[in-house]
Write a structure and sequence with these properties.
The complex is a heterodimer of chains A (526) and B (284). Chain A has 526 residues and is of the alpha/beta class. Helices cover 35% and strands 23% of the residues of chain A. Chain A has two domains: 2-224, Rossmann fold (3-Layer(aba) Sandwich); 288-520, Rossmann fold (3-Layer(aba) Sandwich). In chain A, the strands form four sheets. A six-stranded mixed beta sheet of chain A has the order 6-7-8-3-9-10, with helices on both faces. In chain A, strands 15-16-17-13-18-19 form a six-stranded mixed beta sheet, sandwiched between helices. In chain A, strands 2-1-4-5 form a four-stranded antiparallel beta sheet, with no helix packed on it. Chain B has helices at 9-24, 29-47, 49-73, 91-117, 120-130, 132-158, 168-196, 214-232, 250-282; strands at 80-84, 87-90, 237-238, 244-245. A two-stranded antiparallel sheet of chain B has the order 1-2. A two-stranded antiparallel ribbon of chain B has the order 3-4. In chain B, a hairpin with a 2-residue loop joins strand 1 (80-84) and strand 2. Chain B is extended and about 70 Å long. The chains are: A alpha/beta (526), B mainly alpha (284). Chains A and B meet through helix 2, helix 3, helix 4 and helix 5 of A and helix 5, helix 6 and helix 7 of B.
């Protein structure tokens, strides 16, 4: 029995030339875990929203969709609401109630269910999702990961047949993202609920899927089991987003099944001997532009210390990445360096007073109706800068209409108009797909060549490994290890990139996919 | 531990409406003394003696001020104490001012107790009984309003990098308009999420964590009975032209006693439950 069967579906937004979806044929089986991938603008979101009556975009629809054998478009609203659950990427904005239990009960109240039934259902799902401690708390007190779990739980409380998720982990930190995906897999395994999920970070999601559908320019390129898909996508740009094991498999053209995890992937590389390594680049400049010596900081007089005897030195012209768990004080350090907060003990010295700070939400930097007006309010000679950065085509847009990557670059440009010497970035890769991240990284590297110093707080270890010069790990109020990126990541066994885990003990110091290729090529050259 | 505030919100509402109404529309110092005593003791049991004494000091100053000011505006009363600018300053006006101050103090004290007892959950429950849909909207705004303040703060501080380019007022205004735009954007997502979960398709029910048990019913009945008998035996206290108490009968005395019982109920409840808790612990 199929939950959805999509037949010859085409869709066009009003006033657009191009079809957002064209001629899609896809059957989604009951209990299937279907992953939808594709570059941004490929129609993932449109396709998912076509499956939910309440959220379907307006436009020209051709073809049809059957839900459990009946026409989806004619499904009664009272059936559609509970049977098809939908979760979007914003954990916060999706919440409706001020309290956790109110959120869990919201959908059930809408269905007019009896109070005692709601009580039982709400209790059951709060326990299943580990939200018991938070049950009576305000939703505002939850972390991003907990908020998204709550969204999932409150949809699940309505006993849906299918849940559709549109990039649900893009706003979460990597640990919360893995937890969320695991919870989703558990629901799929335990309850047999059908899962349709669009994701752009595949390192963890890829292996969970029964089938993966790849969309390209609104067309369904293929829908295959993940092992088979890797080979089909070999020459596509999208394969950059696949798990690193699968990418190495693609490159090597190995025989046998495509590996999806580090465990499966290590076998492929064993034949390469232990002699290939990545040499460590020497850092030329030793002048410290920012130096923190034994600084202590707490937010409230009676609160706990966030930073305890924390020391950190950033050199002129380097890209310094600062990693660490949620709540470890990463953002606090940035604010201290910027001068928005002051340490109560210790010495903090800045060799340059021209610093610029990019907050976690780059939207907050924009207050006008177009990017151009915002730039104009800072500095009138913005045109030159924008041309040299290649963002002049964004100028006329409203800041909120930009994609995540564009917004991030525009925000950095706005800060660069102040011609700072040090740029402080707080989680710049949050919500970006792999392509946007690469562009951002390259963009930053070019600015560094021009003499900028970048300090970046991030959860994204791959981003740090690919673009940073040095990396530090913040734990228990201080920097517990700090080194150049290759030494840093190859020294850690868990807090490191998948590439480093894949090659540990095989290639020395290889921490990115490019490093792995370099080692393989060196091995083949011999 | 079981506390007074764990009673059902409807019972609590009933209780607090009785005591505040009796305190506000009443200048009989006999009742008011018991009212203030009960409120202060309960407040102390919730927030601690020190906090209670601090607010009492404030009330006392206010009481003195009202007592001193009232004779300057009101010249009724038979017993003239002295004259200011040919105006009589009377003992009765002074006493009435003191009673007025007492009424305000006890009402304020009850209101601070109410603030401690009724959190947003209980208020929402009481409003939600009128309309479950309204309750959902109130709950939504309880979440949104602090969120808007938070994002205003974030935007405002993000703008501080550019502070040299604009004046303080303009920076404030532009942050404000950005907050409005962002909230509108987010509200679209919220609305989608509400629709996706079937909001406004049919008559909603309202889920709450409260259950009205026989225990709550008993207390409600107790409060209603007390309230009725207090009213029945109500005795009046006249300030003008001379301070006089009507002839007291048994009913009047009962009314005062019952009012004392009512005012002291929350405090007694806390004490009783505290003792019970200690005893049950010592039995383990």
């Amino acid at each position: 029995m199929e939950d959805f069967s999509i037949k010859n579906l085409s869709f066009k937004y009003p006033d657009r030339e191009r079809f957002a979806l064209s001629n899609i044929n896809l059957g989604i089986k009951k209990g299937e875990f279907l992953l939808v991938i594709g570059e941004s603008g490929s129609g993932k979101t449109t396709l998912l929203r076509m499956l939910k009556n309440e959220l379907r975009p307006k436009g020209e629809i051709d073809g049809g969709i059957l839900f459990l054998g009946n026409n989806l478009f004619e499904l009664k609203a009272l059936d559609s609401a509970p049977k098809i659950g939908f979760i979007t990427q914003e954990p916060e904005a999706q919440l409706v109630s001020d309290r956790v239990y109110g959120e869990l009960a919201f959908g059930l109240e809408n269905l007019g269910l009896d109070r005692e039934i709601i009580r039982a259902r709400v209790g059951e799902f709060a326990s299943y999702f580990g939200l018991v401690k938070e049950f009576t708390k305000p939703t505002a007190n939850l972390s991003g990961g907990q908020k998204q779990l709550l969204n999932l739980a409150s949809v699940m409380a309505m006993n849906p047949e299918v849940i559709i998720l549109d990039e649900p982990t893009s706003q979460l930190d990597p640990i919360a993202a893995v937890e969320f995906l695991d919870a989703l897999k558990r629901l799929n395994d335990d309850l047999g609920v059908t899962v349709i999920i669009a994701e752009h970070h595949l390192e963890n999601a890829f292996k969970l899927a029964d089938r993966v559908a790849y969309l390209e320019d609104g067309r369904l390129f293929c829908c295959e089991a993940p092992e088979g898909l890797a080979l089909l996508l070999k020459d596509k740009r999208i394969s950059q987003t696949l798990p690193v094991s699968s990418r190495v498999y693609q490159y090597l053209d190995s025989d046998g099944k495509c590996p999806l995890t580090v465990k499966e992937g290590r076998g492929m590389l064993e034949k390469y001997e232990n002699e290939h390594y990545i040499s460590i680049k020497e850092l030329i400049n030793n002048e410290e532009i920012i130096s923190c010596k034994d600084i202590w900081f707490r937010y409230e007089k009676k609160g706990e210390d966030v930073l305890r005897s924390c020391s950190l030195g950033v050199r002129r012209g380097e890209f310094y990445a600062l990693a660490g768990e949620n709540g470890s004080g990463k953002s606090t350090i940035l604010k201290l360096i910027f001068g928005a907060l002051k340490p109560y003990r210790g010495r903090l010295r800045r060799r340059s007073e021209s610093l610029a700070y990019l907050p976690q939400n780059p939207k907050n930097l924009f207050v006008k109706d177009s990017v151009e007006e915002d730039f104009k309010s800072v500095n009138n000679s913005y045109l030159e800068l924008c041309e040299s950065f290649g963002i002049e085509k964004l100028l006329s847009a409203h800041p909120y209409d930009l994609s995540g990557g564009e917004l991030e670059r525009a925000a950095i440009c706005k800060l660069l108009l102040l011609s700072p010497e040090v740029l402080l970035l707080d989680e710049p890769t949050k919500g970006l797909d792999s392509f946007a991240k690469n562009e951002l990284g390259m963009f930053l590297r070019e600015r560094i060549k021009e003499g900028l110093t970048v300090i970046c707080v991030t959860h994204d270890l791959d981003f740090a490994a690919n673009f940073a010069d040095r990396c530090g790990l913040l734990f228990d109020g201080g920097i517990i290890c700090e080194n150049d990126c290759n030494t840093f990541f190859s020294g850690n066994s868990f807090y490191t990139t998948a590439s480093s885990r894949l090659t540990k003990g095989i290639f020395k110091n290889a921490v990115t996919y490019d490093d792995i290729l370099e080692c393989i090529k060196a091995g083949e050259g011999k | 531990m079981n506390t007074f505030r764990n009673l059902h919100p409807v019972t609590l509402l009933l209780y607090f409406s009785f005591v505040t109404v009796f305190s506000v529309f009443n200048f009989n110092p006999v009742y008011l003394c018991f009212s203030l005593l009960g409120a202060a003791l309960y407040f102390a049991s919730v927030k601690g003696v020190f906090v209670m004494l601090k607010s009492m000091a404030g009330y006392f100053i206010m009481l003195l001020a009202v007592a001193a000011l009232n004779p300057l505006f009101s010249h009724n009363g038979a017993t003239a104490l002295f004259f200011i600018n040919d105006n009589r300053v009377t003992l009765e006006a002074f006493c009435f001012g003191a009673a007025l101050g007492l009424a305000i103090a006890s009402a304020l004290c009850w209101f601070s107790c109410i603030g401690e007892v009724f959190d947003s959950e209980k208020l929402l429950y009481l409003f939600g009984r009128a309309s479950p849909k309204l309750a959902a909207v109130i709950s939504l705004s309880l979440r949104l309003v602090p969120g808007i303040f938070k994002s205003f703060k974030e935007i405002h501080s993000a703008q501080s990098s550019f502070s040299s380019n604009q004046g303080r007022v303009r920076r404030f205004l532009s942050s404000f308009s950005a907050v409005i735009t962002q909230s509108l954007e987010n509200s679209i997502i919220t609305a989608d999420s509400m629709n996706a979960r079937g909001f406004a398709l049919k008559k909603r029910t309202r889920f709450s964590r409260f259950r009205f048990t026989a225990y709550d019913a008993g207390f409600s009945a107790f409060f209603v009975l007390l309230g009725t008998f207090i009213c029945v035996g109500w005795f009046s206290f006249e300030f003008y032209p001379v301070i006089s108490i009507g002839r007291l009968n048994a009913l009047n005395i009962m009314s005062v006693v019952l009012f004392a019982v009512m005012s002291l109920t929350p405090f007694a409840y806390e004490v009783k439950e505290g003792v019970k808790w200690k005893i049950s612990l010592s039995k383990i």
